[in-house]
Amino acid sequence: MLFRSKDWDLTLYGGDTTSGVKTVYAMVSDLLGNWATLTDTILYVPDRQVLEVPTQYSTIQEAIDAAGDGDMVYVLPGNYNMRENITLKQGVRLQGSGATETIFSDYMTFSGATNSIIDGFGGYMAINFSGVGPFIISNNWIRSGITIGWSAQQMNVIIRNNVISDNSRGV
C-alpha cells in the first residue's frame, strides 16, 4: 500500500505541510498491552506524484521521463521480462512492490542520478551511479552475476537491506 499526504493530517499535533524533512513518531501496542515508540525521518514532498508501471506507463523509462523531482515511479507486482537500460532522474524514487513481488527476469541496467532511490526489486540488475549523490539502493534481491558500481570519488552511496546472491561479480 502506498501512503500519500492525504492519508494523514500533518498539522494535527503541531506539524506543518511545507516540503522538507519531517520526524515521524508512532506508538504501537500488542495484544498484551506492551507499548513501543518508533521514530523515523522522512522527506515530505506535498506535491509528489506516484506514476505507476504498467497501468499508466508501459515502460519504466517512460514513467521516469514523465516524473519530476520528488516523484515516485511505482512498479506493480509482476515478472518483467524485458531488457531495458534505465536512466534515473534527480530526486526520483524507483519503487518496486517488494524483492519477491517485482522481479526482473531479464538483465536491467540502471544509471542513477543525484538523490535517486532504487527500492523493492528482485532479479537481474546492474546499477551504476554518476554524479555526487546521495544514492540509495535498498530492500532488493540482486542475483545472478550482477554488479553495483560507482566512482571512488562518490562517498554518498547507501546500500542497505539488500540480498546479493549467486553473483560472479559484486559491489
Structure notes:
The chain is mostly beta strands and 171 residues long. 4% of the residues lie in helices and 45% in strands. The protein has one helix at 60-66; strands spanning 20-29, 35-44, 50-53, 72-75, 78-80, 84-87, 93-95, 102-112, 116-119, 122-129, 135-138, 141-143, 148-149, 157-160, 163-165. The strands form three sheets. Strands 5, 6, 8, 10, 12, 13 and 15 form a seven-stranded parallel β-sheet that branches. Strand 3, helix 1 (60-66) and strand 4 (72-75) form a beta-alpha-beta unit. It is globular, with a radius of gyration of 17 Å. The model is unreliable at 1-5 (pLDDT under 50).
Helix content: under 10%
Cα gyration radius (Å): 17 Å
Number-wise, the strands total 15
Rounded to the nearest angstrom, the distance between the terminal CA atoms is 30 Å
Overall mean pLDDT: 81
Secondary structure category? mainly beta
Order of helices and strands: EEEHEEEEEEEEEEEE
In percent, how much strand structure appears in the residues? Answer: over 45%
Helix tally equals: 1
Low-confidence stretches: 1-5
Shape: globular
Largest sheet properties: 7 strands, parallel
